[in-house]
Amino acid sequence: MKRVLYISGLSVLLFLMASPAWSANQEDAKEELNAKEFITEHLADSYEWQIVSDGTRHLAIPLPVILHSKTTGWHLFSSAHFHHGTNSYKGFEIASDGKYKGKIVEVGDNGNISRPLDLSLTKNAASLLFASLLVILIIMGVARLLKRDPMKPRKGFPGMIEMLVLSINDDVIKPSIGKDYQRYAPYLLTVFFFIFTNNLLGLIPIFPGGANVTGNIAITFVLAIMTFLIVNLTGTKEYYKEIFWPDVPTWLKVPIPLMPIVEIVGTLTKPFALMIRLFANMMAGHSIVLGLTMLIFITASLGVAINASMTVLSVIFTVFIDLVELLIAYIQAYVFTLLSAVFIGLARIEPHSEKKKVTSTGQAA
What we know:
The chain is an alpha+beta fold and 365 residues long. It contains 10 helices and 9 strands. The chain has 2 domains: 58-118, no CATH class; 123-352, no CATH class. It has helices at 2-27, 35-43, 123-148, 156-177, 185-203, 217-233, 237-244, 258-298, 304-347, 352-364, and strands at 48-53, 58-62, 64-69, 73-78, 88-89, 92-94, 104-107, 113-114, 117-118. Strand 3 and strand 4 form a beta hairpin. The longest helix has 44 residues, at 304-347.
């Protein structure tokens, strides 16, 4: 009996979800929905943080716009001026097409369009700050709780955070880096929780989620650069010796420095791999979820029966992909932290003579 009620309730819900889309499509003269443009716009950054929308009206948090024009100087105003019935403000507007689509441009008196210096707080930037503050509050709160009674086992959320910290520190950072792992643990743990938190927030369709932070290549670029700098600024002499004078036949090093060039390229491809892996996986996941959701609206003009059946499939597959994305949110944070730790460990290589001393000491003991 309960199963029948569940199925009936789900059917009614899906019908209610499908009917408005079908009706709106009929009234709109069967206007085709551009799925590619819709997905691109939802993944792109914006100058407001949308909370809810019904298609004609929307509730959003306006964000501060900070611009510097070569002709009129600095400007500071709210992005609400672009979304409350006016398309332009003080000679600035958000481009609707072209290479500056979605960005604020300045329109001159002669109609020329130029891009001012844009330091505005966008949705991705606001979400990044929110996620950073959230990570700080969570970690500091759990640390304060554990400091009161370190030996008391924790349950619930504090226990989960403690488990994640110990797992990443003992199973990833310590084995990958070695004896001075504690020097790099704060950075690597921060990177893990920062990426994991932003991945989870990106899966939440309503405020304060919905921002595509880790699916933005600028964010993953900065994270990869930070790892690159730590690796190469704290590398040992043996690490640089293996780059510029590796232990290979001399003819591979002089007169043409073939192996040093290969090693230098290798130091650049490591952060590139970190950047692309995180960006591509999160961007692809968000695109798939949006694409599956769009099936409801794309099939609205094909009739109630087809639209209802595709709505059922869309809901089922979207829920499944969302569950997979929860796993991927953790895996991508874990992999980025693991590879960063491995790269740092490779840069902390010791001279072969010291390795032999350690080995002989261990055998003698």
